[in-house]
Design a protein that fits this description.
Layout: E1 3-7, E2 10-13, E3 18-25, E4 32-39, E5 45-51, E6 58-60, E7 68-73, E8 78-83, E9 92-100, E10 120-121, E11 125-130
Parallel strand pairs: 2-11
Antiparallel strand pairs: 1-3, 3-8, 4-5, 4-9, 5-6, 7-8, 9-10, 9-11
Length: 131
């Protein structure tokens, strides 16, 4: 059974950093496109980052480009989101998501996929950034 569990959320001040982790189980990480999606209070879910199944491509939403970095360790079955220079508008629940590689959701030049394009999601981790 495919399972995604996020961790690493918390409360930080503006300008601070956090590293989110997504532990994957029940599937081979290299067969799946992985992504991060967030939902701020009262707002739509936003796809903010993705990494292709072999890790050769990473895409970012304009709102996080230059501040966030997605990576993965296939041997450990982990996906990470390094978040630097956090802003109050980054406050949201952050979700890890997965989709089988054949759909090519994270190809060069594409925007990060939104929630509905993935097949599997974690339960999320809360990130709160205070000014």
């Amino acid at each position: 059974q495919l399972r995604l569990v996020e961790s690493g959320g918390g409360s930080v001040q503006s300008g601070g950093s956090l590293r989110l982790s997504c532990e994957a189980s029940g599937f081979v990480l290299d067969y799946y496109t992985m992504g991060w999606i967030r939902q701020a209070p009262g707002k739509e879910r936003e796809g903010i980052s993705c990494i292709s199944h072999i890790g050769s491509t990473t895409n970012y939403a304009d709102s996080v480009k230059g501040r966030f970095t997605v990576s993965k360790d296939s041997a450990k079955k982990m996906v990470y989101l390094e978040m630097n220079n956090l802003k109050p508008e980054d406050t949201a629940v952050y979700y890890c998501a997965a989709d089988f590689k054949s759909r090519g959701l994270c190809e060069p030049g594409l925007r990060p996929p939104g929630w509905d394009l993935y097949d599997h999601w974690g339960r999320g981790t809360q990130v709160t950034v205070s000014s």
